[in-house]
Amino acid sequence: MAETIRLTTPLTEEVSRKLKVGDSVLITGKIYSARDAAHKVMTEALARGEKLPIDWHDKIVYYLGPTPAKPGDPIGSAGPTTSGRMDAYTPTMLEQGIKGMIGKGSRSQAVVDAMKKHGVTYFAAVGGAAALIAKSIKKYEVIAYEDLGPEALAELTVEDFPCIVVGDTEGNNFYELGQKPYREI
Which residues of 148-174 are buried (b: 16+ CB within 10 A; e: fewer)? Predict the structure, then answer.
């Protein structure tokens, strides 16, 4: 089994292009959460020529809608959202400089093409492990679109956030490649 890769943010294109499907990764640093409602607001703002609340250059976006935090915790359960919900907005957002996305599930061909063009890696966090994932989140702070509730744009400080590369900058798809050996029974 391959060794776990430790990444510290920001995620540069150079580092992103070195990651390959199947790589096990632990991320430490700042990542940003945003789901479909926030993506819709941001792409509409860009269409109007407005500036976004953060500079997305070399950032990682986590498709997350957390549950409320228990007293003393920075966040509640923090499992991934199905990434396909963001696909309509993703090519536009990748043009803003995002270099990593964290979610679950397959992506559209338009997203895969944009990932290859912009040097972006797609990571999967394990669905169903939301409470465990939350333990790697040390701070959660809403920075824009507070009216969207759990879908607001937020900054997360993470330590050893566990994920796996499921889409690399060459267009490889772990959901397909990982299953291939088991289809020939």
Answer: bebbbbbbbbbeebbbbbbbbbeebbb
Catalytic residue among 21, 27, 39, 158: 39
Q: Establish whether 39 is a catalytic residue.
A: yes
pLDDT digits (tens, 9 = 90+) for 66-94: 989 999 999 988 989 999 999 999 999 99
Report in angstroms the alpha-carbon separations of 63 from 8, 59, 87, 125, 135.
19, 13, 11, 10, 17
The number of residues making up the chain comes to 185
Peptide bond into 10 cis (omega under 30): yes
pLDDT at 54: 97
Burial-class residue 175 by CB neighbours within 10 Å (0-12, 13-18, 19+): middle
